[in-house]
Amino acid sequence: MQAPTTRRHALTLAAATLAGLAAPAMAQDNVFKIGLILPMTGQQATTGRQIEAAARLYMAQNGDTVAGKKVQLIVKDDTSLPDQTRRLAQELIVGEKVNVLAGMGITPSAMAVAPLATQSKTPLVVMAAATSSITEASPFVVRTSFTLPQASVALADWAPANGVKTVVSLVSDYGPGIDAEKFFNARMVNNGAKVIESLRVPMRNPDFAPFLQKVRDLKPDALFVFVPSGAGAAVMKQFAERGMDKAGIRLIATGDVTDDDQLNDMGDVALGVVTSHHYSAAHPSDMNKKFVDAFQKANKGLRPNFMAVGGYDGMRVIYEALKSTKGAGGGETLLNAMKGQIFESPRGKIYIDAQTRDIVQDVYLRKVERKDGQLWNVEFDAVKEVKDPGKTKK
Ligand code: PHB
User: Fold this and answer.
1) Which of 89, 162, 192, 388 has the CB geometry, 3.0–4.6 Å to 147, for a possible disulfide?
2) In terms of Cα–Cα distance, which of 95, 144, 99, 96 is closest to 117?
3) What is the whole-number distance in angstroms between the Cα of residue 39 and the centre of ligand 1?
4) How far away, in angstroms, is 107 Cα from ligand 1 center?
5) To test ligand 1's pocket by mutation, which of 109, 178, 256 has the most ligand atoms within 8 angstroms of CB?
6) Tens digit of pLDDT per residue, the chain (394 long)?
């Protein structure tokens, strides 16, 4: 009597094991996983908060079933430490078998993950990081944010024609800052202006005071600044405290400084500051008005910034690639379906250059103004379809 029972038990076990193995495999077939790695805590936390909110908004508006697949968003916090980004990416590729990696709050994170994207043939949609060379770090990178050369050059064309003959640059001392310094300063010189000094501040926990004191002593017509999203308010505060504006030094910057996430709390010192960038929450298009409205409704009134738009458009690029490959494509097929996409974004018309996999977009000149009691980056001019100038030298 012993044997049949044991045998029956063994058979039941085998069946259960098979079913157990088959179930996730089948589920896996119908699931499309996006591994979204972002800084949700730490110095860059506003970037994570903005991009996650935008990705969830995109999914809420467009559904979570695409080409017969259930889209699953897996959000991981890398606290903006590149070693963490790499470790999380590895886990997502090997453990979760994600179809796409996305996010990348800062350049060092994107650079840390790029080799893994290449090895595993996983498309990597860079939604925030903005150093020119990131797209060259892996053929699997597609970017929906911007590049610092792209944003800086328009301002360097505007400034000398608007009374800025001498300038000091002040940038965060890492990839995007060095790109901003290089491209802004070279273009200023090209346009007949003089760059008196190029200053770099540490990326982590910067103290701007000694640098601003130096700028005060040098007395340029303008100070040009790049700091990453989230650090702009501190620059603005110290600029005011040191009386730089009263000393006749104008502040000009990339739009990272007058970041829509923080702008409203910056106060009067921000009024009149001219910046160049690819997105303003005040961009006057129907699509943007709807985007800002929906974003604010879903996030307790939070105003979307340029990071949010990079996340929103990144999701669009992923969804459309999945649709056009009819849910069948992974890896290279999916990547190819991302290349060349052209569409209207809340920022205006954009496309993903099929050769460089980088974004081509309009860059706007904007001035901070108060409207209905709130501060906005009001666009007053645009340079159309700007390709990353960081790549044209090759
Ligand atoms: C970057 O690290 O590439 C980066 C981060 C924040 C910005 C711009 C660039 O606002």
Assistant:
1) 388
2) 99
3) 12
4) 6
5) 256
6) 344 444 444 444 444 444 444 444 444 679 999 999 999 999 899 999 999 999 999 999 999 999 999 999 999 999 999 999 999 999 999 999 999 999 999 999 999 999 999 999 999 999 999 999 999 999 999 999 999 999 999 999 999 999 999 999 999 999 999 999 999 999 999 999 999 999 999 998 889 999 999 999 999 999 999 999 999 999 999 999 999 988 999 999 999 999 999 999 999 999 999 999 999 999 999 999 999 999 999 999 999 999 999 999 999 999 999 999 998 867 999 999 999 999 999 999 999 999 999 999 999 999 999 999 999 999 999 999 999 999 855 4
- Residue 148 Cα to ligand 1 midpoint, Å, equals 8
Q: Is the CB of 150 under 6 A from ligand 1?
A: no
Inter-axis angle of helices 209-218 and 232-241, to 10 degrees? Answer: 50
Ligand 1 centre from 177 Cα, in Å? 8
